[in-house]
Amino acid sequence: MLLSIEGDEATGKTTLAYSAPLPIVGFAYDMGIERAIKGGKYDELFKDISIEVIPYVKGVTYLEADAAWKDFDITIFELPSPIQLDSMRLRGNTDLWLYSINLMAAAFSDPKVSTVVVDTMTVARRCKASSHLEVLQNAAYDAAGNRIQGVNLREQLIQIEYGKINDAIRDIYTTGAGVKQADGRPKNLIATHHLTDERKESLDKDGKVVQMLTGKKILEGLAQTHRFVDIALLTTKENKEIKG
To answer: Where are the domains of the chain?
Structure first.
């Protein structure tokens, strides 16, 4: 099953995702796992299961030996966004993306893994976008890290370049739809998403086309997400009660 869980902050998206069938391998791009696991649902959902949280260490792949998740019910790889010390040039995003996507491929390929969690796919997509921009920026530097005269440093992606980013996210969904567990059942892929304000083109008082807020919230990420998942669930909070 492919499931999208969408909602604002603190609406139980991550907690719900990790209540899926075990064993689970999760990818914590959002880094909010401690609150989700050890919060109000800990005794009910997580108290009696083994959980391993693996911090990100640059250069360590966890792919050379036995699977890092083989002895645990839930294994979560922390994927913190790299701290940027340069106001212009991005660093570390490509390393982080390749590390996470290679581990994800290994988890998908392991028939013993029942569920793969991507938390959040919103931030995973941002990571891929930053990685792509980082690669483009590298063209402005020589092997020693010095700026090449006459070569402009890219500051942002243009709209058409998001095609490659969207293709990478789409590949995660298509892979998740095609892999199976050891007993032949389909593997589960659960992707959590942030929400963002919906904008649509409209005409202002001067007749110019502008982007206007509609007052609605929509999924922040791949626009066609709902085409790739079996179920999309919206989580909300009303009077301190979480609803889905």
So the answer is: 8-196+216-243
